[in-house]
Amino acid sequence: MKARRTTKALQYVALLGYMVFLGFPLVWMLSTSFKPPREMVEIHPTLVPHNPTFDNYVEAFTEQELGRAALNSLQVSLATAVLTVLVALPAAYALARFKTRLGTVALGWVLLSQLFPFVLLVIPLFLILRQVDLVNTHAGLVLVYVVWALPFALWMLQGFVRNIPRELEEAAAVDGATRLQTLRRVVAPLLAPGVVATSLFAFISAWNEFFFALVLLKSPDLATLPVTLARFVGVEGIARLGPLAAGSLLATVPSLLFFAFLQRRLTSGSLAGAVKG
Amino acid sequence: MLRKLVAVSAALLIGLSGCGGGGDEETSEGPVKLRFLSLAWQKESLAANRELVDKWNAEHPDIQVEYVQGDWNSVHDQLLTSFEGGDAPDVFQYESASIGEFAEQGYLADLSGLLSDDFKSEISQGIWDTVTVDGKVAGAPFLLESQVVIANKKLLDAAGVTVPAAGQAWTWDEFQANAQKLTKGGTYGVAWALKSPTNRVMNLSLNFDGKFFYTEGGKTEVKVGDAEKEIPRRIHDMIYVSKTASPDAVGMGGTDPLPGFFAGKYAMLPGGVFLRQQMVEQAPAGFEWVTLPPVKGTTANQAANPQTLSISEDSAGKKQAAQFVEYFLNPANQARLAQGDWLVPTGRKAGEELVKATGGKQGWDVAVASAADLTIAPFQTVSGYPEWKTKYATPALQQYFANKITLDQLGTQLVDGGKQVLR
Amino acid sequence: MTTVARARARSDRTTVYLLLLPALLPVLVLSVVPLLRGIYLGFTDARAGRDVDTSFTGIDNYRELLSDDLFWSAFRIGLVWAFGVTILQFVLALGLALLLDQPLRFRGFARVMALVPWAMPPVIVGIMWRLVYHPDAGLLNEMLYRGGAEGLRHNWLGDFSTALPAVILVGIWAGMPQTTIVLLAGLQGVPRELHEAAAVDGASAWQRFRSVTIPNLMPVVIAITSLDFIWNFNSFGLVYVLTAGGPGGRTMLPMLFAYEEAFRYGNYGYAAALGNVMVVIIVALLAVYLRRRLREANA
């Protein structure tokens, strides 16, 4: 009993350590966003601002159209997440459950496409999108993001499918379930955490992507958040830290909320559905 | 099967393109439309840029300018991609050191025939030279950054160091001697921020006529003689021999030394004139700062790397774009843009207006006066310079300023690098 | 094979293709074409410029590349970086995922916090970490100072020996969420019955971890470590903001090298050749890893 309590205590200590390591830049960013310019160059910086101010927020939001940029980003990222999962799920299932040469080639290719320095792909990609008139549209950007997120989605999802013991599906089939029923009742619940992880990945990588958004979108009204935020950084990497931190907070919160909303899905589901259903 | 697929994918593509915003706005009739990519990032300069564009648009219904904001870190990639993709902005802001290559690649319009003589005569020939590639003018230079020294007034007074008047600049020997006087207790005389050392060294080396690049009979090579060694040696000696410059600051860039400077850890801060803005906005209450004129060697010359406005060769409205550039950079506007970015205007009249408008305070007198010594340096016209800088010069200088190699080894590395790049 | 079996096999194959196509089609259009072009460029002297002629140069680029010491030194640093980040990241992420899988209090909150590095916009991440490592006013040095360990204050990014470890730490931080979330999701996929059955058989927690968790997690582990390795090898944006490859080239990553070759000096052909060589080497490394792992997993 005592050993178990020690284990628990150690677990909390470790968890706290992780939280500090992973979370402190966010806390620091929050603190910075309320600091007046003079407090950003103190030789002994403090976590709590001496004279907290909202000026950075006012400046960030009046100077750049962060609201519109956030809406643009949200639209692009959600579309990317949904499309990626819709497209990747069946393919991943096929890759994991049926051995075909096409499947092997596809998986290999998908990995290879991640390997090649993407900076070298930008210009050809740009030219293709120009051919089909998708430059300077969100649709073109979504298309690029989906293609970019697909390798991860495929590899991860097929890994998750492989994780589901084939016997469970076979057992369901023996019980007289049709293929679709098997998929819905047995596979889907077990796959839910993987789908959550994948859609989260697609969402966030689109939400944070800078380079393609910069190059593909020309009209100021289409600009996404990362591109807009970068405008607070000037020559030689000198940043206007206050407005940048304020704007970045706006960019960070939606992802965290999105995840807070989804995270329960990472545990629930599991086998419950398969057993009860 | 296959046909179905193609049909489905086509439908998908069409569907996708339908739901996106934006789209093409190209029209053959109506006013000329120009896209202007600006790199303004400071509050005041942003406001000035937007206001000037709005004013232009109101006054010129037949030439409408769309204001697009870029950023300094990614502008190179953005421009290169859009040049290659045939979708470049009509007018864009950048700097002389970087547009040379675009000009050589044929992407920039030659402004020599597009800009009026009145406009050209405002700017000195030395500055025009920095934007001239193969006899063609690649951009209109408008903002200059000279290297000055910002100092902590109280520490100067305490050490009995008097502030030199404009035109009475310290020599390097005096600068080093004063740094010695200022070094005591926990205070270093100087903080040399040398994270990106190459441009700094190249610019200052003109003080001793250090050219680095020598062209003979159409062939350019790197030479490191006594003139070239002056600046690196003096900086190195301050850090490791007289110990009047902080070794910690060597890895710093841009505004990194400010916390130490404001805390009195460093008495003097050599840097660009734009640092004055940080002084005004960020110095703690009661902190007194002063702008010292640029330090001089055998001459007071420094390399000029002006910010520029260029016009794309592929622009459909080059003439109109040039009109806009002239308007945007007229003396009054230029003075305003310079003030917003805390830099020095290239135009003579603009400089005079700026000193008048500010009363020469906050170092504006010193800043504007320093522009007279800015001129072209040999490295600015060498097409392999960016590669030499990143691959060889920067690592070698970083090693030298970290006391890992000797001055002679530095020289050898720079020369060998030149041989690799300038084949 | 009977006719029925054959017919079923054929219908299965059709199903497979139908399932695969929506994913492969966009990949085909938007990645195969640019990729093939990219690979081809590696055998040409393509340069940036308006109306420049490009000609096929065969293996010239590769001959030059063999003697390009700067590239190979960057490549070695790239391997240290990619292996360092991937391995440490995996170990730390596995620990965190196991913790987050436990019925601990504040678990939901902790899961959200674990995502922070991922959610913060990259543009500010590098800047925040520069503030952490700042020699005069950095958080790390400030913590050492307040903790009474003033003597340990250090110029983390400026010192030749600590620059690479310092950026590796940032790399680990930045990639933790992805790996953690995937492993956590993988842990959920391990059927609970197997755990229960093992527990009934009297297996200890460690034994269960080894005999149930690890084997079941293996496909996910393989996938995420391979992808992490590739991503880490290919990433350079963060390091660029932190050190720009300095001091003295100590953090010059091969992808940064290739990027500058293409975008700064306009040598598309040579940059693509660098890309090709890196792809070949990394594929070889991955092939060894994947083959062994997959065999283990299938055994």
Structure description:
- The complex is a heterotrimer of chains A (277), B (423) and C (299).
- By secondary structure, chain A is mainly alpha-helical.
- Chain A has 2 domains: 1-53, no CATH class; 71-276, MetI-like fold.
- Chain A contains 12 helices and no strands.
- In chain A, helix 2 (55-63) packs across helix 11, helix 6 (138-163) packs across helix 8 and helix 7 (166-174) packs antiparallel against helix 8 (179-208).
- The two termini of chain A are 37 Å apart.
- Residues 268-277 of chain A have low confidence and may be disordered.
- Chain B is of the alpha/beta class.
- In chain B, helix 14 (331-341) packs across helix 15.
- Chain B folds into 2 domains: 31-145 and 305-368, Periplasmic binding protein-like II (D-Maltodextrin-Binding Protein, domain 2); 147-303 and 384-421, 3-Layer(aba) Sandwich (D-Maltodextrin-Binding Protein, domain 2), CATH 3.40.190.
- Chain C has a single domain (69-298), classed as MetI-like (MetI-like fold).
- With 299 residues, chain C is an all-alpha fold.
- Chain C has 13 helices and no strands.
- At the A-C interface, helix 1, helix 3, helix 4, helix 5 and helix 6 of A face helix 1, helix 3, helix 4, helix 5 and helix 6 of C.
Please write out the topology.
The complex is a heterotrimer of chains A (277), B (423) and C (299).
Chain A: H1 2-33, H2 55-63, H3 66-97, H4 101-115, H5 122-131, H6 138-163, H7 166-174, H8 179-208, H9 211-216, H10 225-229, H11 241-262, H12 272-276
Helix pairs in contact in A: 1-11, 2-11, 3-6, 3-8, 4-6, 6-8, 7-8, 8-11
Chain B: H1 2-19, E1 32-38, H2 43-59, E2 63-69, H3 75-84, E3 91-95, H4 96-104, H5 117-121, H6 125-130, E4 132-133, E5 136-137, E6 140-144, E7 147-152, H7 153-158, H8 172-182, E8 188-190, H9 197-205, E9 213-216, E10 219-222, H10 226-240, H11 258-262, E11 266-272, H12 275-282, E12 289-292, E13 302-303, E14 307-311, H13 318-328, H14 331-341, E15 344-345, H15 348-358, H16 364-370, E16 374-375, H17 385-401, H18 407-421
Parallel strand pairs in B: 1-2, 1-3, 8-11, 13-16
Antiparallel strand pairs in B: 3-14, 4-5, 6-14, 6-15, 7-11, 7-12, 9-10
Helix pairs in contact in B: 2-14, 14-15, 17-18
Chain C: H1 3-41, H2 60-66, H3 69-101, H4 107-113, H5 116-119, H6 122-133, H7 139-146, H8 163-188, H9 192-200, H10 205-234, H11 237-243, H12 254-264, H13 268-298
Helix pairs in contact in C: 1-13, 3-8, 3-10, 6-11, 8-10, 8-11, 9-10, 10-13, 12-13
